[in-house]
Amino acid sequence: MKGVPFHRRKETKLVLRYLIAAFLVVIFVFPIYWLFAISFKTPAEIFAFPPVWYPKSIQFNNYAVLFKDGDAKTVGNSLVLASVSTLFAMIFGTIAAYSLVRFKTGGENLAVWIISQRMMPPVAIAFPIFLFYVWLGWVDTYIGLIILYTAFSLPYVIWMMRGYIEEIPLELEESALIDGCNRWEVLWKVVLPMARSGLFATAVFTFVFSWNDFLFALILTRTEVMTYTVQVTHYFGGQSNFWSKIAAMSVLGTIPVFITVATLQRYLVRGISMGAVKG
Amino acid sequence: MTAIAHPDRNFKYWLISPAIFLLLLVGLFPLIFSLVVSFMRVTMLETDTSFAGLANYAQLFHDARLWQSLLHTVLIMVIALPVELLLGLAMAYLFLDRLPGRQLLVSLLVLPTIISPIVAGATWRLLFDNRYGPINQIIGWFAGHPVPALWTVNPGLVYPAIIFCEIWQWTPFMFLILLAALSNVDRSLTEAAEIDGARFWRSFRYVVLPAIFPVMSIAILIRGLDLFRIFDIIWALTAGGPGTMTETISVYTYVQGFRQFETSYTAAIAFLVIALLTVIVTWAIRRMGLAK
Fold first, then answer.
1. Are A46 and B132 a contacting pair at CB < 8 A?
2. Do both A183 and A231 map to the same domain?
3. Does residue B2 lie within any of the structural domains?
4. CA neighbor of A161 nearest in space, from A260, A275, A277
5. Burial B202-237 (b: 16+ CB within 10 A, else e)
6. Same domain for A138 and A16
7. What is the C-alpha R_g of chain B?
8. Is A1 within a domain?
9. Which of B137, B236, B290 is facing A51, going by the closest CB pair?
């Protein structure tokens, strides 16, 4: 690069960086493109050799089949389980986080214990939970999975909300107390409005984590509340005419996540790093 | 304040008790249950529930398949985690400076991380198909002849297949976190384009790395733990096969509990894993000062 004027050198670097960036985007997005493409292809296009790189025309047959067979119902199940458990986890998690931040309840040990619950390998406790649920009659019920997802989301919600609540100035709460509000009113009228954007972002990520779960749904659902992730794996196996179903069902389960995350871009980093980076 | 001090005193416990109750219900209960059952002889197929003492734990030491599954888990982790970290860091540097359309490109790059791991596995299953998948086709272009590689069946290719999928899904996670961490570092120290190689490495080693280290270690912890319990991607791609070649600790535990119905023995495995992780995680969290 010797002899090239400095500003020219910088431009060359920019072009080079741009090319590498574009290459990376193609690599990382291509698998997702392929999934979407298959979901719109005809069987002849899916099983063409050499592979067809894009569907000739957009047709929704693969999706129509899912709705006709009732398989699409599993997306509805995922929706109910993920949203109801998110609501509960947000309520219980936020008040618990408030208790941890403002009153130092249980000290540092309790906070560490709570976060360590998130670190447990699900499969290790899934089995005892399964036996417990058989005994309670909770296998393949909404209540069983909602309680499970709620409990599994709690450490995340508590951890995230702890960070957001810590940022609220204590003076605001004190002045509300002096104005005659009781503790619940302070929480409802001061803390929650102040933490609103944090609440919203945390709720969305909690929703996505429950929505994406596979292992618990595999173990604890049979037919009634089967989620879309389990439904996808039912198409695996010998018969290759299930390819269109794998793709269409995967897309159905992925679009809601793309939409929610797209609307929440500015919280993305903090959300997936469990608050490690303030965003 | 004495008048309202009394109801106030229990307020903090009222707030935290529902969460604690739920965590105990699905967290501590299974732990105790596992412990009790692991000392018995329970299987789902027989009615014998006699006391077994430490027999199940003794069996752990003689279970070659268990230790192999642990080895498989570690193998995937020691390859995937450094690659994700280094590639993520390199990508973060690439996107750190001004770049037209940066926001859109970053959003596109992050897509793999937010989809369900089971969908990621399913997607790569389709990509890896020996005949109708695009990967063999693309390799064929470079090789100059058709390549019929059986990615999810051939013993020499199953690990690369799993690790590709894993790296594809989670490198963007590292990238996003490290990009945010680097953005918080003084820009004059990170502008690789403006300074020569030696100075760049020196400033990276002594200034940038210590600055991003806390965030980086949390990212490594989160990913390390996720890799330790890897299940979905493997279930979708190989289901532990061929044979038991790609069986990880999570897959093996699942098979013991839900295919072999070895209730007590599964509980012993589960307790071993929980005990192992509790010690490591508690140590790591305290060490990193995460609790503060």
1. yes
2. yes
3. no
4. A275
5. ebbeeebeebbeebbbbbbbbbbbbbbbbbbbbbbb
6. no
7. 24
8. no
9. B137
**A234 touching B (Cβ < 8 Å):** no
Closest-CA distance, A275 to chain B, in angstroms, reads: 9
Q: How many structural domains compose chain A?
A: 2
Parent domain of A28: 6-59
The answer to whether residue A8 neighbours chain B at the CB level (below 8 Å) is: no
Partner-chain contact A232 B119, CB within 8 Å: yes
CA-based nearest residue in chain A for residue B169: A28
What mean pLDDT is predicted for residues B114-129? Answer: 94
B21 inside domain: no
Q: Are B179 and B92 in contact (CB under 8 A)?
A: yes
Q: What is the pTM of this model?
A: 0.90
State pLDDT tens for residues B154-196.
999 999 999 999 999 999 999 999 998 998 887 766 665 556 6
CA separation, residue B266 to residues A123, B78, B81 (Å): 10, 26, 28
Task: Residue B128: give the domain boundaries.
Answer: 63-288
Size of interface A-B (CB pairs under 8 A): 283
Q: Quick one: tokens of B183?
A: 């953005």
ipTM > 0.95 for the complex? no
Which residues from B are below 8 Å from A51, CB to CB? 132-134, 137
Candidates A125, A138, A185: best to mutate against B (most CBs of B within 10 A) is A125
- Cα separation, B272 vs B266, in Å, equals 10
Residues B34-85 have pLDDT tens digits of 788 889 887 877 777 778 788 889 888 899 999 999 999 999 999 999 999 9
Residues B87 and B167 sit within 8 Å (Cβ to Cβ): yes
Domain membership flag for residue A144:
yes
Residues A15 and A72 reside in one and the same domain: no
Q: Tell whether B282 is covered by a domain.
A: yes
Contact A154 B22 (CB under 8 A): yes
pLDDT tens column, A78-99: 999 999 999 999 999 999 999 9
Say if residue A8's pLDDT is above 80.
no
User: Chain A: nearest CA to B6, how far in angstroms?
Assistant: 12
Euclidean distance between CA atoms A79 and A72, whole angstroms: 11
| CATH number of the domain that residue B236 is part of | 1.10.3720.10
Closest CA to B209 of B196, B226, B190: B190
B16 within a domain of the structure (yes/no)? no
Q: How confident is the model at residue B290 (pLDDT cuts 50, 70, 90)?
A: low
Name chain A contacts of B114, Cβ cutoff 8 Å: 208, 257-258, 261
Q: Do B180 and A250 touch (CB under 8 A)?
A: no
Interface of A with B in 155-194 (CB under 8 A): 155, 158, 182-183
Same domain, A171 and A240: yes
